[in-house]
From TrEMBL:
PROSITE patterns in alphabetical order: HTH_GNTR
UniProt-recorded name of the protein: Unannotated protein
HTH gntR-type domain residues: 17-84
Compositional bias (Pro residues): 227-238
Organism: freshwater metagenome
Amino acid sequence: MTVVRVGLPKPKLAYVPSSADVASDYIRTLVFTGVLRGGNKVPIEEIAQVLNISRQPVREALIELSHDGLVQTDGRRGTFVADFGPSTIRDHYELYGLLQSFAARRVTQDRDPAVLTALRAIEREARSTVDVAEVTRLAIEFTRVINRAADNTRLRLVIKTMTRFTPGEYYLNNIPDALKRSRTGLRSQLRAIEAGDPDTAAAVSLKTWHTTGEELIKHLRSIGVFPDPPPAPTPAPPSGANHGL
């Protein structure tokens, strides 16, 4: 792997609970903005200096990032950004969508009035605000209500390990019409759950997270983090075709 020294930008970061969370969000930002790319060594010392924290929380953040498949440790050489391409994004959101669809199906089957009331309140609040951080919080709370109501400890634990993938409000800050898409997604999921249609609720969840992944891939290509896909090959002319001879 190539060791590359990079100039690190100052973090654009609101308050988060711990130094490890700060470091985790910042390193994710470096990866998702292309400052650090696949094969680059993660400069622990420099990150600690930029964030004005010790190296220990940075190392803790890297453990979390390794679980997400964003970094990998290479023996004594250090920690490097893992291969980061469209398949990384696509696989994450396809898997996450499957887990969320399972939870949505169970909640729809149960039709607990208290859960429906909570989901309606969150969706209504999301429609009334344009604050990106607040809509992000509400979208997370919406899925948490569903996941808790699904009453499956193993499912909640697995989902929790996959929840924090992009940095902060990255999706809502960078994807065109993201606020509208987020609100529409919440409304579509709520309607399916209210209708008591488990198949539709599961399908809406799958589609929502699939679309999220594809929009992120599109954005990352637009800013040069991912290369454009190669052009489709020109089909060969049919055998024996008349070429004007």
